[in-house]
Amino acid sequence: MQAAHVNPRGIRPITDAELAQFQRFIFEAAGISMSDAKKALVMGRLSKRLALHQLTNFSQYFNFISSGQQADEVQIAVDLLTTNETYFFREIKHFDFLREQATLARNRSQPFRVWSAASSSGEEAYSIAMVLADCLESTPWEILGTDISTHVLQGAQRALYTMERARHIPPAYLRRFCLKGAGVHEGKLLIDRSLRSRVLFRHLNLNEPLPSLGQFDLVFLRNVMIYFNDATKREVVARVISTLKPRGHFCVGHSESLSGITQAVVSVAPSIYCKPS
């Protein structure tokens, strides 16, 4: 009989049965439906954790995080298995719409509130902040950025990015709101403190009942629902809509739709919905 292949770290390749364990794990933790095509991704992202804990197969690691005694490791596994890709001013039409709504809200006394509900490493939230700082002048505004991954939230709070991720920032905003890195930070930019101080980041799982967040004028939940099945989409969307003010707006990714998911909002433009008053 031929010996099973073991990689140089002594870790056996993940089996189909082990992949199924992690598919169930990330679905139960985050509502994410992970396809069989993600097998290499799971192995690649978790192998370092197996090596760290001197484990040789993925069943051992699954049992390790399922023991009920490894809450920190569970969060690390969730962080590693959730995909986080974003950049500044992604899907620019949403920011044009945000500008229109913010302009209409000028001079009101109540804060204009926006929720970046899957904020990843913060580029979306800071893009929103640049628009509001530019448009609202003396009108108060607030931004909440949330994500299931504590790791990316730490990056969001640092607000230090490569210039490659900033290629879509309008030049005037780049000059006004960003600091150019030097020395060890050459090739990077830092979001100015005046903007960083206006954005609150916190850990939140959209697949669980929401804490008290208040009501929002606009919510961005973009390029996330593609990872959910229909039942999870309905639950998450219902939670998000409950935080919208009457006449508040909900932006989803351009490849996403709320058709067949909810009737609580109406379409006002491609991938933009409004909660009736």
Detailed description of the structure:
There is one protein chain. The protein has helices at 16-30, 39-52, 58-65, 71-81, 92-104, 123-135, 150-158, 171-177, 193-196, 230-241, and strands spanning 112-116, 141-147, 160-162, 178-180, 188-191, 199-203, 216-220, 244-251, 266-269, 272-274. The chain starts with 15 loop residues before the first helix and ends with a strand. It is built from ten helices and ten strands. The protein has two domains: 16-81, Orthogonal Bundle (Chemotaxis Receptor Methyltransferase Cher, domain 1); 92-274, Vaccinia Virus protein VP39 (Rossmann fold), CATH 3.40.50. Strand 7, helix 10 (230-241) and strand 8 form a beta-alpha-beta unit. The chain is α/β, with parallel strands linked by helices. Helix 5 packs parallel to helix 6 (123-135). The relative contact order is 0.12. The model is unreliable at 1-6 (pLDDT under 50). It has a seven-stranded mixed β-sheet, covered by helices on one side. It has a three-stranded antiparallel β-sheet with strand order 3-5-4.
In short:
The protein is of the alpha/beta class. The chain has helices at residues 16-30, 39-52, 58-65, 71-81, 92-104, 123-135, 150-158, 171-177, 193-196, 230-241, and strands spanning 112-116, 141-147, 160-162, 178-180, 188-191, 199-203, 216-220, 244-251, 266-269, 272-274. A hairpin with a 7-residue loop joins strand 4 and strand 5.
